[in-house]
Write a structure and sequence with these properties.
The chain has 375 residues and is α/β, with parallel strands linked by helices. The chain folds into two domains: 122 residues, NusB-like (N-utilizing Substance Protein B Homolog, Chain A, Orthogonal Bundle), CATH 1.10.940.10; 173 residues, 3-Layer(aba) Sandwich (Rossmann fold), CATH 3.40.50.150. 40% of the residues lie in helices and 17% in strands. It is built from 16 helices and eleven strands. It has a seven-stranded mixed sheet, with helices on both faces. It has a four-stranded antiparallel sheet with strand order 2-3-1-4, with no helix packed on it. Helix 1 crosses helix 5. The longest helix is centred in the C-terminal third of the chain and has 17 residues. It is globular, with a radius of gyration of 23 Å. 43% of the residues are buried.
């Protein structure tokens, strides 16, 4: 089953969204949708599923072979969290998965465990399991944002995120769309987003902070996959889009801007200065956990200093290329101060505005942005 193979690859370090895009492209829409629902859903509530494995089997999930653990997670998820998959089908499919994975000796165990699973309520042993987040992450969000907001963020991360699209001009027929308070951003109410540019509303809210005008020179320091560059070009700017890997820039060839491969942690390879600069910095992604749930099971607090060091170097180098009186927006999809306010404090720039969106409080993903200028 496609979902099983994707979850195996995610367990080995792959990213669910990339794997879903590549592995489900040849499937019909119904099968692709089910695979996405199982993969992302199981990752979102993974801590709950592992508790339930032990609850029904009396064996800790961490002591099982990865293939067995994944098959049980998928089976329990389909039985307890979905309604369109019959329980007997989820059981038989999970048994077949472990057989195909050369774990035939575990087939009886998987069958016996899943036949105990029902939809009866269970008492979660703590909020880390109930909210399916690492305890350290919940604790730091509570300290920073308060208990109520931290719980809103965590609960939003367990839900399927809404789809937003970017449209210039009149919305096309074929999908039911709802305008938002971000110009050009529409929420998909019903129908398919096929043929439309999917871009989260939080992401679309970043570019307006630059206050772009036609004819300005614009540098997008970390541009891939290109959504923000394309949005910026709607204003008539003369754009240069950059990324450290050419393969990430290649899909942007049709945008009509200059493409430059560069490592922004080193001095930027430009003599000229730019009127407007966007640095949407690589980050932990803790504002996107509903969309990228595997991140919460990989990230550790000790990872943040290295991210901050890289982000600070990129921001310093970008500021060197900002024209006097120009405007630079530094943004991340992180909720962590180490990647946000702490980075801003390390660079010589005047802060015009600090801005943030939080999942569960604001629509869409979580984002931070700082609007900076050089005198």
């Amino acid at each position: 089953m496609t979902a099983f193979e994707i979850l195996r690859l995610v367990e080995g370090g792959g990213y669910a969204s990339d794997l879903l895009a590549s592995r489900t492209a040849a499937l019909d829409s119904r099968d692709a949708g089910l695979a996405e629902e199982i993969v992302l859903g199981a990752l979102r509530v993974q801590a709950q599923l592992d508790f339930l494995i032990q609850h029904f089997s009396e064996r800790p999930a961490g002591r099982l072979d990865p293939e067995v653990r994944i098959a049980l997670r998928m089976g329990i998820y389909q039985i307890r969290y979905l309604t369109r998959v019959p329980a007997h089908a989820a059981v038989s499919e999970s048994v077949e998965l472990v057989k195909r994975a050369r774990k035939r000796s575990a087939a009886g165990f998987v069958n016996a465990v899943l036949r105990k699973v029902d939809r009866s309520p269970v008492a979660w042993p703590g909020r880390a399991i109930e909210l399916s987040h690492p305890a350290w992450m919940l604790d730091r969000w509570e300290r920073r944002y308060g208990l109520e907001t931290a719980m809103k963020i965590a609960r939003a991360n367990l839900a399927t995120p809404e789809t937003y699209v970017r449209i210039t001009g009149s919305p096309p027929p074929g999908a039911e769309l709802e305008a938002t308070d971000v110009p050009g951003a529409y929420r998909l109410v019903a129908g398919s987003a096929r043929g439309l540019r999917i871009q989260d509303i939080g992401s679309q809210a970043i570019v307006p902070l630059l206050e772009l005008e036609a004819g300005q020179t614009f540098l997008d320091v970390s541009a891939a996959p290109g959504n923000k560059t394309a949005q910026a070009m709607e204003s008539g700017v003369r754009a240069v889009a950059c990324d450290v890997h050419f393969r990430r820039l290649a899909p942007m060839r049709g945008l009509g801007c200059d493409l430059v491969v560069m490592d922004a942690t080193r001095p930027l390879p430009f003599r000229r200065r730019f009127d407007r600069i966007l640095l949407d910095a690589p980050c932990s992604g803790t504002g996107t956990l509903a969309r990228n749930p595997e991140i919460k099971w990989r990230l550790r607090p000790e990872d943040l200093p290295a991210l901050q060091e890289r982000q600070t170097a990129m921001l310093r180098n970008a500021l060197e290329r900002l024209a006097p009186g120009g405007r630079l927006v530094y943004s991340t999809c992180s909720l962590e101060p180490e990647e946000n306010e702490d980075v801003i404090q390390k660079v010589p720039a005047r802060v015009l505005r600090l801005w943030q969106r939080l999942p569960g409080v604001d629509p869409g993903d979580g984002f931070f942005a700082a609007v900076l200028t050089s005198d």
